Amino acid sequence: MSERRATEQGPLEDSVVSLNRGLWTGAFLAGLVAVVVGGVLARYLAVNVPEWTADGGAAELGAAVEYPVYAIAIGLLLNAVLALTGVRDRIAVGFRTEFFIKTGLVVLGATVLLSVIVRAAGPAILQGLLLITGVFAFTWWFAGKLGLDDKLRALLASAVSICGVSAAIAAAGAVRAKREQLAYTASLVILFALPSIFVLPWLADLLGLSPSVTGAWLGGNIDTTAAVTAAGSIAGEEPLQIASIVKLTQNALIGFVAVGLTAWFAFKVERSSEGAPKAIELWHRFPKFVLGFLAASVLATVYAEQASAANLEQFESTIKVFRDSFLTLAFVSIGLEFKVTSLREAGWRPVGVFAAATLVNIGLALALASILFAGFTL
Amino acid sequence: MSEPITPPSADVDDARRFALSEDWLATIAGLAVVALAAAGVITADWIPL
């Protein structure tokens, strides 16, 4: 009977499956509506607050606050309201930060000339390799000193050194981490990314960094891609372009780290007999939206050569509006996804590791960006 | 009687698979926006705010 139940489904099971599917779809749509409502509100405030404050004492502040600030603040506010009403966890499946940020980044590719990507690729790859190696090694070592589990060490080191939540997911697949370890690492990434979105652009301004060095620094040290884009948007158009190129380079390196971790855990930690990972794994783990970013840049560069001035102007304004809309939805989702409960359960040691690794990341990225992107202009 | 055959616990693998399919979806959606904007089918007015 057990085998029949496991391999076939009767009418009752079919009903349960379709009910579950219906509930999932409803939850997904409800979550999506929450994100879109937050996004519309954020855009409304970003457009109107400068006008409302234009004649008063807060004119400078009103004009200076960029749309990512409104989007994240509204996301956090909605998060609190939905959590209080007990709805948040049930509709969280609709908070698709990764989808919105990746789509926004592909569209953003159309605002970056191919020649800029080609010129920035060399320093971006070198910075990525040095940063990932240095920060990963430090985090792995320090987490070991504090006695953390090897799988959690791998997740924390990947998240802080490569690209936040996406890297943690890839690493979790590679080392077969527990679900709670992944949830915990993702919460840590967002906890540290949120203040960096606002503090680091301000610090870059205070330090008098050039737009390119600012972009390379933000792209190199802020963990998660969405937060890099938010900080870049606050810092300006040029820092945003360089930050995106640098971060996408790190994203592209994720496959190598995931394959390396798979092999390391198979041979050294768990000594399993599954053998070495196949080369195709590199392709499986490669973030495909990086190709979309490049393709969009190629498309826009070719289009710019052929289009009339009026058509080009319309194209550029359309791309920017759609790019900002997708990014706004991503920033609202970041605020909605933030959750502190899993952090409480894991104790202070992983937080200490992540904090120390973040400081090392900030310092090393600043040094590398200042050297590799000195004198770089768009 | 053997035990029920249940799929292996693969929360993380499922998360990875979904993230990757979402990856392709985002790539296609983003490129579609760029192509439609280049063709003049969609314009900035489509987003009212």
UniProtKB/TrEMBL annotation, chain A:
Membrane topology, from the record: Multi-pass membrane protein
Cellular location(s): Cell membrane
Listed InterPro entries: UPF0324_pro (IPR018383)
Main location as per UniProt: membrane
Keyword terms, alphabetized: Cell membrane, Membrane, Transmembrane, Transmembrane helix
Membrane spanning residue stretches: 21-47, 67-87, 99-118, 155-175, 181-204, 216-236, 248-267, 288-305, 353-376
Superkingdom per UniProt: Bacteria
Family of the protein in this entry: Belongs to the UPF0324 family.
Protein name: Sulfate exporter family transporter
From TrEMBL, chain B:
Transmembrane segments: 24-47
Keywords tagged on the record: Membrane, Transmembrane, Transmembrane helix
Protein name from the UniProt record: Uncharacterized protein
Annotated organism of origin: Aeromicrobium alkaliterrae
Taxonomic lineage of the native organism: Bacteria, Bacillati, Actinomycetota, Actinomycetes, Propionibacteriales
